[in-house]
Write a structure and sequence with these properties.
With about 250 residues, this protein is mainly α. It has eight helices and four strands. The protein folds into two domains: about 190 residues, no CATH class; about 55 residues, no CATH class. The longest helix has 29 residues. The chain starts with a helix and ends with a helix. The relative contact order is 0.09.
Length: about 250
């Protein structure tokens, strides 16, 4: 990232105060200033786009005292049993502040953002979170790898190798997201991961298409298009996916 882009990113960030639901300590986590980022649409799999900042980097809230971490939408919701599991399974192994005093960085590097996601995944496994929460974590991790790949300098030596590695990591994370969302759809009640039924079905279709699972994609697309209650926006996106499936089948 060049200096101008970095300074722009820093200007869009704000320190937000939290109280950890596990250890009860207060801390500050960076977040994107509300209303300051101009949306430039979405990718096929609903990833938000903006040229000013990759907001996905700031999706995870991490307590620097005990190591509890989760996506912002799940952070405050911790049961008594989950709290105990985190205290026993995460905190003893987490290299936190240890009395050093909290230091809030000016921004999160790509490496720091990825570290936070991995800590959140570890927490998710320890507290036995729902499949939809796992799906959302892997989805955003896939988006994180995509953002890193897009920010690579194409003129640098080794660009092709670095881009290929990040694309492989992205595909792996998105396949995990797909599998967990399919499980969540069968076992959880709506809203699932903050999504209503048409949105989740569309997302599964988009992820399945990206993973080469055309049968799953076509099934979800069909259910969206025959529904009388799905709004036109989702139906239009589903029609676009249907055209992409048709083009792939024509090449086979």
């Amino acid at each position: 990232m060049d200096e101008k882009s970095l300074e722009k990113e820093k200007s869009l960030l704000v320190g937000k105060s939290y109280k950890c639901p596990v250890c009860d300590e207060k801390f500050t986590s960076l977040g994107v200033r509300s209303g300051k980022v101009r949306s430039e649409g979405q990718d096929r799999d609903l990833r938000p786009r903006s040229s000013s900042i990759d907001s996905i980097k700031y999706s995870v809230i991490l307590c620097p005292h005990c190591g509890y971490a989760a996506l912002s939408q799940y952070f405050s919701t911790v049961t008594v049993h989950q709290r105990k599991a985190i205290e026993e399974g995460i905190t003893p192994n987490y290299d936190g502040l240890k009395g050093q005093g909290e230091v809030v960085p000016e921004y999160y590097s790509d490496e720091e953002a990825l570290r936070r996601f991995r800590v959140a995944l570890a927490n998710c496994l320890v507290k036995k979170c729902k499949d939809s929460e796992k799906g959302n974590l892997y989805l955003r991790m896939g988006w994180l790898f995509r953002g890193r790949r897009e920010r690579l300098d194409k003129d640098n030596a080794g660009y092709e190798k670095a881009a290929a590695k990040l694309k492989a990591e992205e595909d792996k994370a998105l396949k995990q997201a797909l599998d967990f969302f399919i499980k969540a759809r069968m076992n959880e009640d709506y809203p699932i991961g903050g999504m209503d039924e048409p949105t989740l079905e569309y997302l599964i279709a988009a992820l399945a298409l990206g993973a080469g699972e055309k049968e799953t994609a076509s099934k979800m697309i069909g259910q969206i298009l025959v529904s009388r209650t799905v709004n036109d926006r989702i139906k239009d996106k589903a029609r676009d996916l249907k055209e992409e499936v048709a083009k792939l089948e024509a090449k086979e």
